[in-house]
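Cross-posting from the chemistry board since nobody answered there.

I work mostly on the small-molecule side, so proteins are not my area. We synthesized pyridoxal-5'-phosphate and want a rough idea of how it might sit in this target. Sequence and SMILES are below. Is it possible to get a predicted 3D structure of the two together?
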Amino acid sequence: MDRRSEIAGNLEAVREQISKAAESAGRSVDEITLIAVTKTFPASDVEILKDLGVSDFGENRDSDAAPKAVAISGTWHFQGQIQSNKLKSITSWANVIHSLDEIRHFEVIEKSAAHALDIFCQVSLDGSEGRGGVSEQKLYELAKEIEKSPTHRLQGLMAVAPLGVDPATAFSKLSAIHKAFMADFPKANKLSAGMSGDFKEAIAHGATHIRIGIQILGSR
Ligand SMILES: *Cc1c(COP(=O)(O)O)cnc(C)c1O
């Protein structure tokens, strides 16, 4: 099978599963943004996705992402662990950052970003920072800094289900954290959660942005 047919088939299957998950949760699919995670895959795959109607692309590494984002127009999402020395470059091509978890990184963004960014705060669901994310205690402080910005927009929260934890349990906890958070930050009503292995559970718990790589593009 050629690459285009392979990707088209996978994409259709994923879209169908998103519709079903939304329907069982009593939600509209229109409130769910599918981000195709193109990290490690070539620009030619991004072109195919674009041709198939995908406009949101997710990346984890500046050096892998920058050339693709420069060559292909779309909404580019950065969801990888942030390294301060790469931030200026990341803000040059990214439209959305999902993985902000430190105030000092936001300060760099404020100083160096050439355009307005949509920002999600990444929350750690297990208290450890192994997979990235700010603790619940430090989350509000970080969010307040972003809200003060005249330029950038706080969108909501992002999280990755901890390894070895049932995703439904993890995302139920995330949903509770997000609901409490919205009492203080009512505009931050977006929730970025769910990857290839757990997006159905994430949709059941209110995810508005799901980040899917291998189920669309195959194994890396
Ligand atoms: C790689 C990655 C994804 C996509 O994961 P898949 O298993 O390929 O669907 C989503 N979110 C983050 C933060 C990632 O690092």
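Reply from a structural biologist on the board:
Welcome over. Reading the output above for you: Strands lie at 33-37, 56-59, 75-78, 96-100, 118-122, 153-158, 190-192, 209-212. The CA atoms of residues 19 and 49 lie 19 Å apart. Happy to explain the token format if needed.
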